[in-house]
Each structure stands twice: as structure tokens, then as C-alpha cells.
Amino acid sequence: MVLSTLRSQFPTLEQSNDGYPLCYLDTAATSQKPQSVIDAMAHYYRFDNANVHRAAHQLSARATSQYEAVRDKLRQFINASQREEIIFTHGTTESINTVANGLTAQITPGSLILIDSAAHHANIVPWQELAKRTGAVIKPIPLTKDCRLDINAFEALLTEKPSILALSHVSNALGTLNPVKELVAKAKQAGAITLVDGAQAIAHMIVDVQSIDCDFYVFSGHKMYGPTGIGVLYGRFKQLDSLSPLMTGGEMIKSVSFEATEFNQLPNRLEAGTPPIAEVIGLGAAIDFIQALPTAEIHTKEQKLLTYLQDELENIGDVVLYGAHKDNIGAVAFNLADEHHQDVGILLDQQGIAVRCGHHCAMPLMQTLGLKGCCRASIGVYTNKADIDNFINAMKSVKALLL
Questions:
Q1: Where residue 55 falls among pLDDT bands split at 50, 70, 90?
Q2: Which residue blocks in 226-325 are alpha helix, DSSP H?
Q3: Which of 67, 168, 305, 369 has CA 20 to 30 A from 113's CA?
């Protein structure tokens, strides 16, 4: 794929806002979709619209074939050992809830759950609910002053023999990269079940779940150039098979009587009801799109752009960056002096710049940083230097207006 023509594959980016060309720097919230993903979903609805697994007619056969082919693509994409380890959900949030709910019977009062202090709410609240049900105890892993996980504090917590470790691969708010392979290995030695939230990592780096060696890895399609409403739960077969289903009914059953129900085998056992078929097919197209990219070239381009973004923000003056490191992935968090982040975001929007403002579903992290919120600029494969320059020029005008 030629990088010079890459941006043209994203129709949303062709528009203007109030006379300004759209500068989309909110990919960490949701990525834009290439035409190939849009076309794949439209083709399903136009020609193959039928439920999967349940009918003898040709439409259903075609839909089922396309649907299950995506499971095989995902197995290869993240290097799972078998296709049954890939569970379709509606997003990262449902994936984590499926695990947290499914582990209820395995957790006893006083069990320790360790959580990344920079975690998204979706990787905090389900564990809090699990703790309420079981009497488990939650402890956050502290951060260092530069917003990385404190490895010494983590190792000290491991001496308490945690039952569960829940990590972010990449912080959605800050873009900081966690050494998940190292942390998972240490946690496993302590006997913990490990889950990694890969929602912010999956579109920016090669993910090998067998190399990471985690028990569960979760992510969403809409952050990797796919549709909303589709997510993935990877789990080791033995761990997945031990989970109590979050939802029951439909395709997840093997037999039902009024006396008893027997659940189906994986992956069906954890996929109750009619699945998001068009979204799964769209996710398959997104995987094809990603795999057609020159991976090393894209990674180098994104890292250069992120470094350029960090440096140019600092050069403006009166801009505070949070957790900014050269190995960050995809996002930069910042504030303009003491100005309210929402004011900055609105003024940027008036110049065609789309960034995220708020607590980024990471309120505990904001509390740690002593903030009510901040702005976040995030990039994708379609971001170019002109986007960064337009953003920086807009920030300069915002600074001139507010300070």
C-alpha cells in the first residue's frame, strides 16, 4: 500500500468544518473507517443479510462463512493458539465484564485484585463489582512521577499473592506504554490471573498474545479502523472454558429443557444471542486493511509524528504535557496553562481541530495528577505532518486569545 494514497481511503477526512479542513486528532476515542470497511458492511446488508449458524439457506451459509472467517483472521492477527480462543463481544467493556463476571466463583473473600492506576474505567469498574460480589480487595498499582507504573511498588504488591492483575497495554489517556510481558510474567509467578486491555495498542503495534503470555487480552474494533459495536475477548482456552457465561440463551446452548440447560462448547458458550454480524465482517475488512500496510514504515511514521507533536507543543510555551515519553503510543495529553481544557477544545474545534477534552474515562488517573481533566491529541495511520502543523498553529491562536 502506498502511504501517499492512504489518507484518501478515509472518506470522513475529506470534509471541512466551518471552512477549515478537518484535522482529526481523536483516534484514541475512535478511529476513522476506510472505504473498504464501509463497503464490506454494506455488501453484507445488501447481498448476504441473514442470521448465522441457524439456517439451511444460502444467505445464512454465506453470512456464516464470512463471520467465522473473521475468527480465523483474528487468531492469526494476534497469534492465538486456536480459533476457539477468540470470542466476539460488543467491545472492550463487554469483554472485561465477561471475564470479571465469569471469575466470580473462583474468587474468595480477601482475594487481592491489582489494577493499573492509569486504567480506563472499563478496566476498573467491573473489578469493583467483582469485589462487591466476593469480598475481594482492590489495590491500584502506583505511578511514578513521570506517569509510568511503579515497578518497585508493583513487585511489593506481588508479595501479597494477588488473584488477578488487570493492566492497560497502552494508557488511553496518556499514551504511555506498559511493559506488559514483564509485568505478566512476574504476576504469573505470584499465581495471578492476568488480563491486558489492548484497546489502545491493537492499531499501533503488533500484538502477540502468546508472547505476552497473558490469560486474557481484550480490544475493540472501532479503535482499529473497524466498526463500533464489535470487540474481541481472547483467552487461553482453559481459562475461557472456566468462565461462567455473562449472558445466556440463543446460540450458547447445547440443549434446553425445563429441568436443565446444557451449555455449548467454546466459542459459542460465551456468545449468546444474535451476534453483531455486519460489525464482525467489518472488523475482518479492517484486519485486511491493517495487514496490507507496511507495518514497520507505519510504526516509524507514527512515532516520528508523535515526537514532533510533543516537541511542537512544548515549543509553544505555557503548555503542560502529562506522561510524555518518546516511546508513547498514539496520544499526547496536555493543558494550556491553567485554562479549562473544555475551553481549549471548543476554540480548537472552531478551527477544524478535533481533540478530546475531559477525564478520558480515567478519573482516578486525573485525581492522581491533581487535574479535573485535560486535552488529548491522538493520531492514526491517516495523520500527517500537515495535521500536526494545523493543530499547532491553532493552539498558538488559542494561547494568544486566552493568555
A1: confident
A2: 237-241, 277-291, 295-316
A3: 369
Distance separating alpha carbons of residues 289 and 216, to the nearest angstrom:
25
Q: What residue has cell string 507533536?
A: 309
**Mean pLDDT of the region 22-35:** 98
Q: Distance between CA 239 and CA 253 in Å, rounded?
A: 19
Burial class (CB in 10 A: 0-12, 13-18, 19+), 19: exposed
Q: Are 87 and 280 in contact (CB under 8 A)?
A: no
- All three cell numbers of 381: 495511520
pLDDT tens-digit series, residues 169-196: 999 999 999 999 999 999 999 999 999 9
Q: Which of 214, 357, 361, 375 is labelled catalytic?
A: 361
Contact residues for 64 (Cβ-Cβ < 8 A; gap 6+): 52, 53
**Mean pLDDT, the chain, integer:** 96
Pairing of the two strands 23-24 and 20-21? unpaired
Provide CB contacts within 8 A for 329, sequence distance 6+. 170, 175, 177, 200, 201, 204, 205, 306
- How far is CA 98 from each of CA 87, 232, 247, rounded to the nearest angstrom? 10, 11, 8
What is this structure's pTM?
Answer: 0.97
Cell of 289: 486493511
Dihedral sign for Cα 176, 181, 183, 184, please. positive
Cβ within 8 Å of residue 2, ≥6 positions away: none
Q: 231-235 and 253-256 as β-strands: parallel, antiparallel, unpaired?
A: unpaired
Could you write out the DSSP letters of every residue in 206-239? ---HHHHT-SEEEEEGGGTTS-SS-EEEEE-HHH
DSSP 122: G
For a pLDDT cut of 90, what percent of the chain falls above it? Answer: 96
pLDDT tens digits along 249-278: 888 988 999 999 999 999 999 999 999 999
C-alpha to C-alpha distance for 334 and 350, rounded to whole angstroms: 19
Question: Is residue 361 among the annotated active site residues?
Answer: yes
